[in-house]
Amino acid sequence: MEVLARILLVYLSLSGFAVAAQHPVSIPQPIVKTLDSLKEKDNLTDWLYTRIDYSYGSPRQTLPFLMRTERERWRKPQSTPEKEAWLMLLSNQGYNQMYTGNILNSINCYEQAYNYAIDHKLNVEGIADYVLKPWANNYTRLGDYEKALFIQQRTLDYAKREHNDALAVSVYNNMAISYRSLGDFKKAEECILLGTKKAAPGSSALILLDNTLADIYFDKDELELAEQVIARNISRQQKLKPNSETAYWLLSSYITSGDIHRKKQHFTTARNNYQQALVINDQYYKGNRLREKAYIFIQLGKIKLAQKQPTEALTYFNQVLSTFGITDTALRINADRIFGDNRLVDVFYQKSLAYNQMGLQKEALENIRFSLLSADRIRFELADVKTKQRFQAETKQMAEKAIAIAFSLLGKTNQHSYAEIIIAIIEQTRARTLLDDIRSNEQQLTRSTKDPLFQEKAKLEQAIAYNEKELLQGAEDPIEIEKRNAELKFKLEGIEKNIAQRYPSLATGKEMLLAADNLLKQLPRTAHFIEFFSGTDHLYVAEIYNRRVKHIRRISNARQVKQQIFDFVNTYYRRGPAAMMNQPKSFFMASNQIYKTLLGSFNFPKNEPLIIIPDEVIGYLSFDGLVTSNNYQPDIASWPFVIKDLSVAYAFSIQTWLKQSTKKTEHKGFAGLFVTHQHKNKQFIPAVAKEAESIEKIVAGDFRRDEDAGVKDFFNAFDQANVLHISTHSYLSGLQREPTLSFEDEPVFLFELSARKAAPDLVVLSACRTADGMMNSGEGIISLSRGFAAIGTGGTIAGLWNVNDQAASEITAACYQNMLAGQKISIALHHAKLDWLLNKQRPAQEYLPYYWDALIYMGYDKKVNLQAAHNRIIDYGQLAALILVAILGIYYLLKVKKRSISPASVS
């Protein structure tokens, strides 16, 4: 109970501390003497509590002093009271960090507190309230709602075990906030209902729940309902005796009321509500609830923006930055101080809008880039891949705004630096999770796997993949599997943080981003890129050549163009070749229209090798089969396809392309897995057998068929081969359209692919839709091709739609023949497709792109090590010739010897 009492004292004290200066103060001599005396007596418990107690009055001033405790202690805690005191210290560090606005450091402190309590089996009353709850709330502030929900569920389980209804009500409210933030309003309202049922009649906790319910209605745009709920709530609270806790609830109610009226454009009422919230903050918290204060200033600034008063808006926004210590006395921004926080993301974005209203585009661009920087620093703290991808999609709209400003400045000034800024912003939105995976896997494999942390990490990843597989295959209750996986992911994040602390080079840190000019300098001079950015309002196409941005084009009507591409792919490719065959002219004209829209204004040299970096729906296109002219001819083989003018390869981003370019392998062998499903209850693919036969005549290597081509064989081949060829069924599984390869014994899903010590230079996925998958805005298509890139392959040849078996067989065989002749991978595939088109013996419809254009190369282009197969007929002929030569030689020698011996004389 002593520990609980001390925790309560901390939080009550913090709620009313005086305004502190930004710089730490010197420690008073009486405190120093007390600490020295306790140290001499080896009294660690009271030494810790003395430091904690001193931090109560001015946590912002004394935070450095509190954070130095570990460095200044003379030994580790040993007894239970000492360990409880240490837990108190960690909890206070977390709260003080959060209170001063540093969410990331606060999360780390709470995580340390929780792990310390678990590791040392401390059964401390109040840990759920004062560690778990604020820890989860920090993840909510960071935007990692999945992690917040996991911790909140754990806290709720604790509350139910302890029959602590007050805690349960509070947790239900916080869970409602998390679900609301994820846009799951149904679950959010369910949590409010469950919390209401747990709350005692007339309980003040109902105020908390109604505040959140009003926020839910606000997000659903049901403003009248929201206004009714919050007005009733304010009226109820005004009748209560105020204290530090009820004051915070009223402050929150006034903020929500302000938001509702601002959205309804009742600006005077909104401003009055916000001002009431500021008064409460000053009266009860001396203005030191910094995040709430920052939010109010941002909202007041937004009102000024709506009223076309950008100068007044900037005054509010600058107050926010000053509050967080981002600016100096002259309001100059220190970029090094920018940390990951949703408040900072928002305020910099709003500043950008204000400067735009003032016609100051340079300042607008600078601030929106600061906003993206803060968003990036949030993103680096997110662990779960799906959370990262969601966050990436959410920031893309802001990136589009930044690109639009830079594009306007480029047109006005003709300064090349703005073109480079556009490339930097595009790369900031492109395949970032994939880049994280490539870097992380590459760096991790350079470390000793004997470290138990790596072994534990591998076990957790395997368990998560197993559960994901069970979930897709419907083996048991999906809710139980998801709970189990949430627990595993929680443990995995802790292991990964420990690894990052032990091996700092493995952390994908904040300095990972490259400036555009440095990025371009790393490119080969001959590399020629076309990079797309697919926005809500515009599409941007950037041409990069000779380490320089050569041209940037903007395409209007983005929604219309994207829908046009989507309909084109669906009509002519995904549904089979019928539409293309039955309406060749319609296909021809539609294809040419897309070509003109995307590439029509560019002039490329004949046979130029081009690397295309697609975005969103553009990733479903193969450019080889696009038609470059609107002069329709019935003879399909004579159509002016892109492939006849250019040699096209693809990349996920410039940065992933550069990472793949550094890949080195000592392997030289070929491995092929060919699964016809002849002995399984699945569709038999006779063309797979034919494909195996044709490749076996060309390339020497390890060829495995059907029962010898199982999952274990696949992973063994992946570890040992330089080129890995997989010919089988491929499909998209479940609601998430999880890319899946079907082997003889069982399927392999994308999430089962994990980093290995060695990876092929090239993986050929001669299967349907292996370059297809769920679309993620800003991240691209989540495909098998992408999965192989993440675990270290140099590149993949994969299919965008259901490949024609005969075409795949011939084209891949020809591609290997070309690679054996010394051609780079994409050039070899390019010529293999051209060979198909130049063959005059085909039925007319087989010249349509549906047949020959499904396979694309994605990755860094290079030559690969292959050995030619031995031709048995030639080998037998050569052997026979050698035997014949040997026989003739022996015959000749015998004949010559006989002639050289004369008849014997008689004496």
From TrEMBL:
Per UniProt, residues of the CHAT domain are: 592-859
- State the UniProt keywords alphabetically: Membrane, Signal, Transmembrane, Transmembrane helix
Signal peptide coordinates: 1-20
Please indicate which superkingdom the organism of origin belongs to.
Bacteria
Record keyword Transmembrane present = yes
The record ties this protein, via InterPro entries, to: CHAT_dom, TPR-like_helical_dom_sf, TPR_rpt
Return the SUPFAM superfamilies for the record: TPR-like
Give TM segment ranges: 876-894
Name of this protein: Tetratricopeptide repeat-containing protein
Source species, please? Answer: Pedobacter nyackensis
- Organism classification: Bacteria, Pseudomonadati, Bacteroidota, Sphingobacteriia, Sphingobacteriales
